[in-house]
């Protein structure tokens, strides 16, 4: 069984769950300079009442009790971290910052720099901000990624919307799509995993630590009828060609690997989106490699290759972070000793870390309808962008539009670099529907 399914054990301090592998690896490697937060930003077309929103979110937390947890205290010789389940929030996670011209900017900054503490239940924070121009409402959900991921917390927010507005927020039926060809039997045809992948070339680095963020709205790319690839494959190709162009522009030959293969980490989430969705870090990570020769192929051929490769990789049965991570989290020694060993191995393995991460949430599955408080017309997600990867690309579609978030480590890139990467991405994404049609 996965650790998301693990049964809690009852102790004198309450029910406890051992940390799953993903949670433990993340806990070992926490850094104050670059907190592991997931940022979700939801723009609503109305105003929300503070007391009513606080009550609805509290009910949603209790409806998904797995989110009501904190890191349990431990002794020096303890061999496992553990989550301690609680019956109620330790503190109210909902706040209402003062409105103002910089309210959105400051709320985004807090989402990147201030992680909810693991020692307080729940490890999430919800800020309700009035939009300074339209007067609409913007919800900022900040998640400590050691405990939870974005899709799980979005499920909780959809439940809160249902309690607030009294309207069904169940996912509507997915649009009918042509079935994809099944993955070929056996392991996929992949480049060698021993080759060091390309790194994103540094740009105008900023002197302060932490992450930078840029969000924008684009058109959802079209696909020719009967195309053998998906929008996710188009996003994958656009990301790969964006990084390749960026590295070429910055002369990253050899030292930063413009001619090395790209490896793009892609989260895959197989959980249901209804109320039975397991809450926690439930995605598994696969790495999609693309060699320089493959990236030089004509776009239709590259899209077909990417589709074949992603289909085969998704079909593989493997642990969330691979077999090596499962060995690292075996409770053979006190957790503090294993944490030191994990950090040392992470540093040693840094040259083999993937080039970047593309997290495509896809069509947001919930209407996020708060009744008289409005309905979501834009939803952005962003994933942590710690070095050595240093850049993450996160996409979601809402109300027929694609919402793109670029997040980067300031030790690698600056805000102007983010704007240029956005322009490159938009160009290559547009090309996937023009040249491939």
Based on CA inertia axes, which overall geometry fits? globular
And the CATH topology of the domain at 12-165?
Chloramphenicol Acetyltransferase
Cα separation of the termini: 44 Å
Give the total of beta strands: 15
Work out the helix count.
10
Structural description of this entry:
Helices cover 30% and strands 22% of the residues. It is α+β, with helices and mostly antiparallel strands and 437 residues long. The protein contains ten helices and 15 strands. The chain has a domain of 154 residues: Chloramphenicol Acetyltransferase, CATH 3.30.559. Helix 2 packs across helix 4 and helix 5 crosses helix 10. Strand 14 and strand 15 form a beta hairpin. Strands 9-15-14-12-10-11 form a six-stranded mixed sheet, sandwiched between helices. It has a five-stranded mixed sheet with strand order 6-7-8-3-13, sandwiched between helices. The chain has a four-stranded antiparallel sheet with strand order 1-2-5-4, with no helix packed on it. About 1% of the residues have low confidence.
Q: TL;DR of this structure?
A:
This protein has 437 residues and is of the alpha+beta class.
List the topology elements:
Elements: E1 9-11, E2 14-18, H1 21-28, E3 37-44, H2 50-63, E4 69-71, E5 82-85, E6 94-95, H3 103-113, E7 124-130, E8 137-144, H4 150-165, E9 211-219, H5 231-249, E10 262-268, E11 284-290, H6 292-295, H7 299-315, H8 323-328, H9 335-348, E12 356-363, E13 376-382, E14 391-398, E15 401-409, H10 415-434
Parallel strand pairs: 6-7, 10-12, 12-14
Antiparallel strand pairs: 1-2, 2-5, 3-8, 3-13, 4-5, 7-8, 9-15, 10-11, 14-15
């Amino acid at each position: 069984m996965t650790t998301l399914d693990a049964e809690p054990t009852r102790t004198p301090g309450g029910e406890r769950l051992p940390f799953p592998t993903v949670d433990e690896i993340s806990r070992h490697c926490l850094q104050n300079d670059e907190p592991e937060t997931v940022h979700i930003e939801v723009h609503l077309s109305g105003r929300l009442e503070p007391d009513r929103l606080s009550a609805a979110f509290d009910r949603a937390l209790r409806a998904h009790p797995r989110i009501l947890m904190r890191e349990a205290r431990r002794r020096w010789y303890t061999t496992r971290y553990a989550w301690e389940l609680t019956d109620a929030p330790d503190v109210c996670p909902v706040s209402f910052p003062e409105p103002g011209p910089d309210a959105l900017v400051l709320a985004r900054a807090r989402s990147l720099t201030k992680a909810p503490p693991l020692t307080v239940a729940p490890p999430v924070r919800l800020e309700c901000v009035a939009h300074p121009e339209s007067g609409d409402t913007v919800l900022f959900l900040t998640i400590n990624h050691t405990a939870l991921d974005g899709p799980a917390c979005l499920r909780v927010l959809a439940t809160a919307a249902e309690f607030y507005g009294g309207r069904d927020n169940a996912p509507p039926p997915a649009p009918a799509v042509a079935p994809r060809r099944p993955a070929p039997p056996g392991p996929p045809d992949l480049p060698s995993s021993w080759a060091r992948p390309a790194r994103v070339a540094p740009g105008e680095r900023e002197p302060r630590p932490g992450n930078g963020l840029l969000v924008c709205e684009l058109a959802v790319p079209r696909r020719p009828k009967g195309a053998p690839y998906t929008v996710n494959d188009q996003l994958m190709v656009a990301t790969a060609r964006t990084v390749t162009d960026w590295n070429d522009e910055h002369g990253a030959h050899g030292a930063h690997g413009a001619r090395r293969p790209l490896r793009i980490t892609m989260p895959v989430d197989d959980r249901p989106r209804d109320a039975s969705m397991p809450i926690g870090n439930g995605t598994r990570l696969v790495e999609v490699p693309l060699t320089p020769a493959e990236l030089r192929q004509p776009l239709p051929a590259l899209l077909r290759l990417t589709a074949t490769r992603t289909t085969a990789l998704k079909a593989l049965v493997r642990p969330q972070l691979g077999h090596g991570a499962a060995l690292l989290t075996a409770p053979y020694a006190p957790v503090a000793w294993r944490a030191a060993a994990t950090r040392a191995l992470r540093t040693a393995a840094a040259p083999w870390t993937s080039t970047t991460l593309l997290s495509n949430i896809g069509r947001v599955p919930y209407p996020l309808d708060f009744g008289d408080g409005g309905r979501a017309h834009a939803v952005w997600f962003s994933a942590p962008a710690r070095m050595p990867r240093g850049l993450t690309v996160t996409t979601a579609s809402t109300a027929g539009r694609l919402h793109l978030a670029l997040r980067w480590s300031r030790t690698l890139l600056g805000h102007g670099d983010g704007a240029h990467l956005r322009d490159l991405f938009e160009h290559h994404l547009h090309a996937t529907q023009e040249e491939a049609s």
